[in-house]
Write a structure and sequence with these properties.
The protein is an alpha+beta fold. Helices cover 32% and strands 21% of the residues. β7 (252-257) and β8 form a beta hairpin. The longest helix has 28 residues, at 497-524. It is globular. The relative contact order is 0.11.
Length: 705
């Protein structure tokens, strides 16, 4: 328990810990007797971790032959901590006892990948496509959809894992009830229908494609049904629809039939979506022995209950504290547009990198609630959490992302979108702006919810990287060349001038290209017909001066102060909002402006400028397994900084008993001699920080798996 005088930030529950390790010792000895049950009851009574208690209960039940109830306990624990190896172990054991061979194999694969235990001696044989898809997802992380570095395939009677791409078929993502699955095609805006499919047919199983070339290759994922022979498309009387449709072979012939026109031929490209405008019920028939994919019909027409365009633009890694004082100079086109809206001047990301940050934006929930913090895992977002895409789809919008990174597809963050045009890495604003305009021109007869993800300014390790030509030609030689012998994650890149020059060049590109898109919107929509939001998911380390030996502050303001600005219907004009805001606040803000219901238990807050209540603190944190947990809780003037002694566990928990905690003036975070010994500040920060980490704290209790 915590000290009432706030002199100590955190104390572990010693009684619960002693009971835990007593139970752990008994389980290792397989002493599942009445004393074990009594100790388990005492552990629960002492306030022990509910997940840990359920794991012990499952172990007891398994030892006593009750696999069904063991599974109940294990599944309850899994819902709370889906990345806990001890949970996987009891789930696998329960499934094995229940002869659920496939599910057991999945959890054994998880254990193999994360704890290096051997794969099962034999894996299920004779599997159907759905079962193979489940095994594939277990063998791969959450990144790079529709790629799979290890796809489960049957080679005769042998189960093997090989590189592949889910193109020309359904992508293995769990589909919400009532929703079609994503059927993946290639993408090209112009040119010949099947050219990219010829390349993909040859490259899909090659390591060189998965490791390198995929970075620039675009895929077109649409919610669709694979059809054999024929399909009838219903069109409401007096309405029109746009129908996406893709073939599975080059120049695949279809027969199009309506009651008003004679049969006509149409030609499809292989794994390529084309569109048909339908104004009456239509029958589409393929007489060849090849299936085709029919996307969800897009119903045209506007509603007074919706806006004609809601556009979200994510400029990845835009550090607002660096840009804000030069905004009108560095980004004149974007600054001019949003000067007629609201610009948030004290906005912070929740995390230091995209994988946990984007789900936080799309759900209004922190990473320890989404459980999306481990990109190597295959965990999907809980169905209980509605995403922005799902909320806007429920309102009747056509939801699409014309340019998107692949990071948040497999994990379910983007499941509410009808269409995703994804690329593993290359997301330039020039292509994004052009696609957005083409998208509006093509589908603007419907109400649109559109998302763009742009990577122009995101820093990347210089090893093997092609810098902007204007950067290379303008830098003096001593700044162009440098010794840097180790590969470095983008969140830890040093403050080399070439990185900052690359940032400025990318910023010019973003402003020029997105400025064109914003001008297009101004020229084609009235101010009350659209809402445009531009924001970043995190900042950038390259503006943090340090010596090579100094550790980088990955949740410092350079890395976590982010951009957020809005303009359009319901957005106050000409406002610079100084209130603290968080990345999770975009969700309830769009809920208020677009009128979709927002769950009461989200972490997001409606800003005061929109009629909500101003935050008294904002939270940024690093939840990365294998590294120490770090938290920054900030007010307008001060910041509490926390770092654990030991590393974060695979399930996203950490031990806070010996955490280093200090309170600093803003602008002097972690600076030597700047920590403040103030009872008043401790009384403000400690309860808030304790409450924030409560679900992350593991009381120093660790299972051995």
């Amino acid at each position: 328990m915590m000290s009432d005088d706030f002199s100590v930030f955190w104390r572990n529950n010693e009684q619960a810990s002693a009971l835990f390790y007593g139970l752990l010792a008994r389980s290792e000895q397989e002493a599942y007797d009445d004393d074990f049950l009594a100790q388990l009851a005492a552990y629960r009574e002492a306030g022990g971790d509910a997940v840990h208690a359920d794991i012990f209960a499952a172990q007891y039940l398994l030892a006593n032959g009750d696999a069904e109830n063991a599974a109940v306990c294990a599944e309850r624990a899994y819902r709370k901590r889906p990345l806990n190896p001890a949970v996987w172990n009891v789930l696998a054991s329960a499934d094995e006892q229940r002869d659920d061979v496939l599910s057991a194999a999945i959890f054994r694969i998880y254990l193999h990948r994360f704890t290096h235990t051997p794969l099962p001696a034999s894996l299920p044989q004779g599997l159907n496509a759905a079962a193979l898809a489940r095994l594939t997802r277990a063998m791969n992380g959450a990144l790079n959809a529709p790629l799979a570095k290890s796809r489960a395939m049957c080679d005769g009677d042998v189960l093997v894992f090989r590189p592949d791409v889910f193109v020309g078929e359904y992508v293995p993502i769990t589909t919400p009830e009532g929703s079609a699955a994503y059927w993946c095609g290639t993408y090209s805006d112009g040119g010949f229908l099947s050219d990219r499919s010829y390349m993909m047919a040859d490259a899909r199983s090659k390591d060189w494609f998965h490791d390198n070339i995929c970075r620039d290759f675009p895929f077109d994922l649409q919610k669709a049904q694979e059809v054999h022979t024929a399909v009838n498309i219903d069109v409401p009387e007096g309405r029109e629809v746009l129908l996406p449709i893709a073939g599975t072979k080059p120049l695949q012939e279809l027969i199009i039939s309506t009651h008003t026109h004679a049969d006509q031929l149409a030609y499809l490209g292989q794994w390529f979506y084309s569109y048909m405008r339908l104004s009456a019920p239509t029958t589409i028939t393929c007489e060849e022995p090849a299936p085709f994919a029919v996307g969800t019909p897009i119903l045209l027409g506007h509603s007074a209950r919706r806006h004609k365009l809601v556009l979200n633009i994510l400029v990845d890694a835009l550090p607002w504290n660096i840009v804000r004082t030069h905004f009108s100079e560095w980004m004149p086109n974007i600054a001019r547009f949003f000067s007629n809206g609201t610009i948030f001047d004290a906005h912070f990301s929740t995390s230091e990198y995209t994988y946990p940050a984007l789900p936080a934006i799309e759900t209004g929930r922190y990473a320890h609630h989404t459980q999306l913090f481990q990109a190597d895992a295959s965990h999907e977002l809980s169905r209980a959490f509605l995403t922005l895409g799902e909320c806007m789809k429920d309102l009747g919008y056509y939801t699409a992302a014309p340019i998107l990174a692949t990071d948040s597809i497999y994990n379910g963050t983007m499941r509410g979108y009808d269409r995703l045009i994804s690329t593993v890495w290359n997301l330039p604003s020039g292509i994004g702006a052009e696609r957005a305009i083409h998208h509006i021109e093509a589908f603007g007869e419907a109400d649109l919810f559109t998302f763009l993800h742009l990577s122009d300014i995101h820093p990347w390790d210089a090893m093997g990287f092609n810098f902007h030509t204007a950067v290379e030609t303008h830098l003096p030689l001593y700044q162009r060349l440098f010794a840097w012998e180790k590969a470095t994650a983008s969140v830890r890149l040093p403050d080399f001038e070439i990185y900052k020059a690359q940032f400025r060049a990318g910023l010019r590109d973003v402003d020029r290209n997105i400025g064109m898109l914003l001008s297009y919107i101004e020229n084609h929509y009235e101010d009350d017909e659209y809402i445009v939001s531009l924001y970043s998911d995190h900042g950038s380390s390259v503006f943090t001066p340090r010596r090579d030996e100094d550790p980088l502050d990955i949740i410092g303001e350079n890395s976590t102060m982010a951009a957020w600005m809005m303009r359009g219907a319901g957005v106050p004009r000409g406002v610079i909002a100084n209130e603290l805001t968080s990345a999770v606040d975009l969700y309830p803000t769009l809920g208020a402006l677009c009128h979709f219901p927002v769950a009461s238990d989200i972490d997001g807050n409606l800003p005061a400028v929109f009629g909500g209540t101003a935050r008294d603190a904002v939270y940024s944190f690093s939840l990365y397994p294998g590294q120490t947990f770090k938290l920054a809780a900030r007010t307008a003037t001060h910041a509490l900084r926390l770092e654990t002694k030991d590393v974060t566990q695979p399930d996203g928990t950490a031990d806070f008993a010996e955490a280093c905690v200090g309170i600093y003036p803003r602008g002097h975070e972690l600076a030597a001699g700047c920590a403040l010994d103030s009872a008043e500040l401790q009384a403000f920060f400690y309860p808030r920080a304790r409450n924030f980490i409560r679900e992350i704290a593991n009381n120093g209790e660790l299972f051995c798996v």
